[in-house]
Design brief:
The protein is α/β, with parallel strands linked by helices and 169 residues long. Helix content is 47%, strand content 19%. It is globular.
């Protein structure tokens, strides 16, 4: 890690205020293992979950909810799980992409690279996407517990504070 990256991480906020959204037509609060895992990883890392929602994979509802969260100054990051595949109902990629003002292609690329190491060529079916919507970090990930664990442990938790620091500049 470069000195600059280490300095940036050291000067990053310690606790990030996050909204967590599960996108699913079938999950309930009781069966939402992916969303629950996102929350657990964030809290274990010292971040705050200030908003939590479970919504169907519907672009209008997703856009309305995300617009509400993006308008809330206290929310630094919005993390979404689910709806990133290629089935006809999966609309998270299109919906989130339309709201991003600065895409971070490396997020999806890294997620798929790491996923490939676990599931092989099936990693190409993931359309995980991330970026900034204004000054808010927005990151998506598949809904499976293994995909959430991978994204949270190897990408999001290690870089979230640094991402927010840079987004605020």
């Amino acid at each position: 890690m470069s000195q600059s990256t280490a300095e940036h991480r050291a000067s990053s906020p310690q606790s990030i205020a996050c909204a967590v959204v599960t996108v699913s037509d079938t999950r309930t609060p009781e069966t939402d293992t992916g969303g629950r895992a996102v929350v657990e990883h964030l809290e274990r890392a010292g971040h705050a979950v200030v908003a939590r929602a479970l919504i169907p994979d519907d672009p209008e509802r997703m856009t309305a909810l995300l617009s509400e969260y993006l308008a809330r100054a206290e929310i630094d990051a919005v993390l979404l799980t689910g709806g990133t595949g290629i089935s006809s109902r999966d609309q998270t990629f299109e919906t989130v992409s339309s709201l991003l003002t600065k895409p971070l292609p490396g997020y999806g690329e890294l997620f798929r690279m790491l996923s490939f190491q676990q599931v092989g060529a099936a990693a190409m079916l993931s359309r995980a996407v991330g970026g900034l919507a204004g000054r808010t970090v927005v990151l998506t990930m598949p809904g499976s517990p293994n995909a959430v664990k991978l994204a949270m442990e190897q990408l999001i938790v290690p870089e979230l504070a640094h991402l927010v620091r840079e987004a605020r500049r």
